[in-house]
Design goal:
The complex is a heterotrimer of chains A (683), B (169) and C (313). With 683 residues, chain A is mostly helical. Chain A is built from 26 helices and seven strands. Chain C has one domain. The longest helix of chain C is centred in the middle third of the chain and has 32 residues. Classes of the chains: A mainly alpha (683), B alpha/beta (169), C mainly alpha (313).
Chain lengths: 683, 169, 313
């Protein structure tokens, strides 16, 4: 019964997505196209959630093999175990509101860009993402991975009339294929000679590989999947592609797709390779801490709201990798309970980030939809004009800032608690590395709170800084419902942590280096990290905060004077108050920009135009300040130059002469024959 | 070394001396203000065009000798935090609107103490082209403190009279 | 049941005591300035007056401006309830540990910063920006100091940290504890807006950090915020006292130990108040862009604290 239900659910999911994609082929009115494609996506997402929930709760994996579909490489093999189910749940939870949001949001594209293409690609994107976590052999995995990348590329290129979108698409395409190449090599190295590419075979073969080879596979997997996840230094496509895409696509990419990079590393390192040496975990912690700091430091100085959110995704992925790295480190040091906690914290943070980052991107999209601008220096005063969006964005900002009692705080607390045992560990160099990781984690948390106070405060509060902001209107119903659903989820995932944590512990149990049965991570409403005495209860905290709030409000209502008058903002008696007197986004980040000036190396450019009659009368001042994009300038620009130089040299082969091309064919054919003869002779 | 100097100096606060001759009460204190402002008064000082002679005397109020804080008086930066406006100077044209705005930015119950001869009669600046008039032409005044400039003791007595704490130490 | 009674008594005590603590520090500073000063209970009069005053709200402000004082007060009060002021074992001990306490205070800071931006004044934006800078830079120090304490105590649970030092008095003098105390002392000055980071009595808007965010608040909202600031001061003083010098904290819920706990708490608060008052009289305020240097010194102290705790286990 269970197997048939899960098979039915998976079939239903695939069909729903395909249905949504095919609906785009029909020549319908834009409204109907939008509704049908979104409906297909929502139905598929719902089926995905149901399937994932079923596997997570029942605890037994679900498998399906169709060898006939692609005979090379073992055919299409699908299997959903606890780990995959978690990510499938994440995808569904982010996809349903995003698709609903897209109904209202993409109405603005009608007539300019193809809504049918957008709807079709959205459904295909969701389908391929879901199939990635279901894949159980190398061929299926790589095919679905590449299809997912292509679908997302087309989605990023939706607004292809803008130059920055085209450039962003180029970066994204290049880097995702670099990642694919690295993943491919990793899987090839991992596959047993002559055997099938099924993950079960890989798992068995991995135990027989030499430590050096396992290390190489691990590093390749980290680089390949890390580029998809946005791990420094392979993150540069993220701040370009995510802002360029339509907002619900950005939400899906930041919320779900980068998590598939995490899934890939977990699948390879935790599942296929098994327990490895300590440096694996340390490498991930180092890269994670670097990503977290780089992400948040660049997010702080951004004026473009969506780029700020994209850099913040880099930061949060860094935090997830700190947790994953800590988990792998503890597993290799032989502390399974601590490893479970660290990995559970990382997974929890991945889920939370998916939810609140999607919420924030949808909110930013509503703002862009209403005002036509993403530049925070041109926004402001939107809390009165877009009340629902503002309230939902506030929830998202509080969650991502790690403030109690929301979900972001719970996963950050768990991350801190999971790092604590390591500081007391006796293994060499572990304690200093972990201490610095804790410092980086805390600094990131503080700076993230500052960045999101800026993001919410400058965008929504005070007076509008431009006419577009003044004329803003609230988002349509579908967009609002989607945001409210995600905001409610943020609250629920925080308050219901005592329910979520055991599920995470359960799905991690049984993996290499982890206990067979998950340690008890909760006691009633309390979260209990194993091995310490610390505990926390977000639900009880929330109740306490609400009681304190209500108590204060009641006491004031009863005991204090009630007179209230509306007046002007106090400006030292100055005659007028305009939006020019408010703090801007650039100004807000200025103290931190000075503090971290060594990193940012800000350049300042001040041009003053004076009146031709006298230089004492200033007509205009232009101030321009830029920070150094270290990775783009010092890593990627030289790389691109070398590649371009190399390509220029090899272009000499393309002489245009048919005779030369025929000669190349003959030479290549002869070479292939020689190689195959030599190979078969050696076998 | 700083602390040895502090200990050698000891407390230098003097009891409030003088009389109320320079003080004129212009308006009756409201019951609400009387009830509320007896023990803690926040003052926002407004210089409505004065020569700063009164300001120099006012700055002596928070020093160790006159120590206005012992009466529960403290100075605040924002009129939103203030209960009492301490206004000096003949109100100049440029300061008329800011003075009015400061008064409007102060929440009820509020008081105004006008310090110095200029505040009541425009002093030596009366009739000047840049002067609007005395302070009570712009905002309602509760207490006038005469003098050019009045000493800190008189100013303090004026404030205490305004909150009806005259005589209480 | 007695546990909850103690919790309620503790909460009422800290709420009632907080303005008095601010008053004591002010009184001490006045005496050090060779003047009589207001009595130590002056802040109570000020709060009573503020609750009786009308409120003026800016026309640019939104619902966030009116909600923020309540959130600031509630989060600081919740943090104050988590501090082990009187007793070691309390029911709320399991609900939140030291990290939760720090993040609750950060919640208040964030809402106050947002409220500073809401009316659209330049001062509010400036105060908000500076406050978030200082808060963000103080976070790593706090986390590492907490971890230094947790290393020797075994966890970040407040009752456990207090209990560990009570059980092993020599640990209080260990280098890890002393360095963590120094680091947290600097963080306390930064977070509560005391000299040399921020002058609580300044009138110059360009030198303000905390004050600048509340320039628009009046009446009962201002009263809530001032009370919350006093509570924050009390929380930090009580943490510095009871985590590092825990003798006096009641291990059992009986009247005599609780009375002793109350007495020792008052003594510790008074001692720290004297130290802070003397320090504020001695030093001048640092330029804003020198504050990160001070905070990095405290970060190094915290790092050394973790290292010594680790080496001395």
């Amino acid at each position: 019964m269970t197997l048939e239900t899960t098979a039915c659910l998976s079939a239903y999911m695939v069909l729903a997505y395909l249905g949504g994609a095919f609906a785009a082929l029909l020549p319908l009115r834009s409204g109907l196209t939008r509704a049908l494609t979104a409906g297909g996506a929502i139905a598929g997402a719902g089926a995905g959630i149901a399937l994932a929930a079923r596997v997570l709760i029942a605890g037994e994996p679900f498998a399906l093999t169709v060898p006939a579909l692609l005979t090379v490489g073992g055919g299409v093999a699908l299997r959903l175990d606890g780990l995959g189910a978690f990510f499938l749940l994440l995808i569904g939870v982010v996809a349903a509101p995003a698709a609903l949001y897209g109904v209202g949001y993409s109405a603005a594209y009608a007539g300019r860009y193809s809504l049918r293409w957008l709807g079709a690609m959205l459904n295909l994107f969701l389908l391929t993402m879901s199939l990635v976590v279901l894949a159980d052999n190398v061929l299926t995995f790589l095919l679905t991975w590449e299809a997912m990348s292509l679908a997302s590329y087309f989605l990023v290129m939706t607004e292809h009339e803008r130059d920055d979108t085209v450039a962003a698409g180029g970066w994204y395409l290049a880097m995702t294929h670099v990642g694919l190449a690295l993943i491919l090599v990793a899987f090839v190295l991992l596959s047993p000679a002559g055997g099938g590419g099924g993950f079960a075979d890989l798992r068995a073969a991995a135990a027989t590989l030499s430590p050096a080879l396992r290390g190489v596979v691990f590093v390749l997997a980290v680089l390949g999947f890390g580029s998809k996840a946005g791990l420094v230094p392979l993150h540069v496509w993220l701040p370009r592609a995510h802002p360029a895409a339509p907002s619900h696509v950005s939400a899906l990419m930041s919320g779900a797709m980068v998590k598939l990079g995490v899934y890939g590393i977990l699948r390879v390192a935790l599942d296929l390779l098994g327990v490895g040496p300590a440096w694996w975990g340390a490498l991930l912690i180092g890269l994670g801490a670097a990503s977290a700091l780089v992400g948040v430091l660049y997010a702080l100085t951004e004026d473009d709201l969506k780029r700020l959110l994209a850099y913040s995704s880099v930061e949060n992925v860094g935090l997830v990798f700190i947790g994953v790295g800590a988990g792998l480190l503890f597993a290799s040091l032989g502390e399974p309970a601590a490893a479970t906690l660290a990995l559970a914290a990382a997974l929890y943070h991945a889920l939370n980030h998916g939810v609140f980052k999607a919420l924030l991107f949808l909110g930013a999209g509503a703002v862009a939809h209403a005002t036509g601008s993403r530049d925070m220096n041109r926004l402001g005063g939107l809390i009165g004009r877009l009340p629902w969006t503002a309230a939902c964005f506030l929830v998202g900002a509080l969650a991502i800032g790690g403030l109690p009692p929301f979900n972001g705080f719970v996963s950050e607390w768990l991350l801190f608690q999971s790092l604590l045992p390591a500081i007391g560990s006796g293994a060499p160099l572990v304690a200093p590395v972990m201490t610095l990781a804790v410092g980086a984690l805390a600094l990131t948390a503080g700076l993230a709170a500052a960045a999101f106070v800026k993001a919410f405060g400058i965008t929504f509060l005070a007076l509008p800084r431009s006419d577009e902001a003044r004329a803003a209107h609230e988002a349509p119903v579908t967009m609002r419902v989607a945001m409210v659903v995600l905001a409610a989820l943020c609250a629920l995932l925080g308050l219901g942590a005592a329910f979520v944590l055991p599920v995470l512990g359960g799905l991690l149990a049984g993996h290499a280096g982890l206990p067979r049965v998950a340690p008890a991570l909760t006691a009633g409403p309390l979260l209990l990290p194993p091995g310490g005495g610390a505990s926390m209860s977000p639900s009880l905290l929330a109740i306490g905060l609400l009681l304190a709030l209500a108590g204060a409000w009641l006491a004031v209502r009863v005991g204090a004077a009630r007179g209230l008058r509306v007046g002007d903002t106090w400006g030292c008696g100055r005659i007028g108050q305009t939006a020019r007197m408010e703090y801007t986004s650039t100004a807000y980040a200025e103290p931190l920009r000075r503090v971290f000036a060594e990193l940012y190396r800000p350049t300042e450019d001040l041009t003053i135009d004076v009146h031709p009659e006298s230089r004492y009368f200033v007509q205009s001042r232009t101030y321009r300040s830029e920070i150094v994009p270290w990775f783009e300038r010092y890593v990627y620009a030289p790389l691109v130059r070398w590649v371009a130089a190399g390509a220029a040299h090899t272009r000499a082969i393309q002489s245009g002469s048919a005779h030369a091309y025929l000669a190349y064919l003959v030479v290549a054919l002869l070479a292939l024959l020689a190689i195959s003869l030599a190979w078969s002779a050696s076998l | 070394m700083l602390f040895s100097k502090i200990f050698r100096t000891g407390l230098v606060t003097e009891p409030l001396a003088g009389d109320d001759a320079a003080i004129t009460v212009a308006r009756e204190l409201s019951a609400r203000a009387r009830r509320l402002l007896g023990r803690a008064v926040a003052i926002r000082e407004v210089d409505a065009g004065s020569c700063n002679g009164c300001e120099l005397e006012i700055s002596g109020l928070t020093g160790p000798v006159y120590d206005s804080e012992r009466f529960g008086i403290h100075f605040v930066a924002s009129p939103r935090h203030a209960d009492l406006l301490l206004v000096t100077g003949p109100v100049t044209r440029n300061m008329e609107v800011p003075l009015r705005k400061t008064w409007e930015a102060t929440p009820e119950p509020k008081l105004v103490v006008a310090v110095g001869d200029c505040a009541r009669t425009c002093g030596v600046f009366r009739g000047g082209y840049g002067v609007v008039g005395s302070v009570d032409r712009v905002v309602p005044v509760d207490v006038f403190v005469d003098g050019c400039p009045p000493g800190p003791a008189e100013i303090l007595r004026g404030i205490l009279t305004a909150v009806e704490r005259g005589g209480r130490r | 049941m007695t546990g909850w009674a103690i919790e309620i008594a503790q909460a009422a005590l800290v709420l009632a005591l907080a303005p008095g603590l601010v008053g004591v520090v002010r009184w001490l500073k006045a005496r050090l300035q060779s003047r009589r000063g207001a009595p130590p209970w002056q802040p109570y009069y000020e709060l009573r007056k503020l609750f009786g005053k009308d409120v003026i709200v800016s026309s640019n402000a939104s619902w966030l401006f009116r909600l923020a004082p309540y959130v600031v007060f509630a989060s600081t009060a919740a943090a104050a309830c988590l501090v082990p002021s009187l007793a070691v074992t309390r029911p709320l001990d399991a609900v939140g540990d030291l990290l939760v306490l720090v993040y609750l205070l950060l919640l208040g800071t964030v809402f106050l910063s947002l409220a500073g931006l809401d009316p659209g004044s330049a001062f509010g934006g400036m105060g908000s920006s500076r406050e978030m800078t200082v808060a963000a830079l103080a976070e790593p120090t706090v986390a590492l100091a907490i971890f230094a304490l947790a290393l020797s105590a075994g966890s970040t649970n407040l009752g456990q940290i207090v209990g560990r030092t009570l059980a092993d008095p020599a640990a209080a003098l260990s280098p890890g504890h002393l360095l963590a105390f120094a680091a947290l002392f600097v963080v306390m000055l930064a977070e509560t807006g005391r000299l040399p980071v921020d002058n609580p009595a300044t009138h110059l808007e360009l030198t303000m950090i905390h004050e600048a965010m509340v320039l628009e608040y009046s009446g009962r909202y201002l009263a809530l915020i001032e009370w919350a600031a006093a509570l924050k001061l009390l929380v930090f003083f009580a943490l510095l006292g009871n985590l590092f010098v825990p003798w006096g904290v009641a291990a059992v819920a009986a009247p005599a130990p609780l009375a002793l706990a109350l007495g020792s708490l008052l003594v510790k608060l008074a001692v720290i108040a004297v130290v802070v008052a003397v320090l504020e009289t001695r030093v001048a305020k640092l330029r804003l862009f020198r504050v990160p240097e001070l905070l990095s010194v405290s970060f190094v102290l915290a790092l050394l604290a973790v290292t010594s705790s680790f080496l001395g286990r």
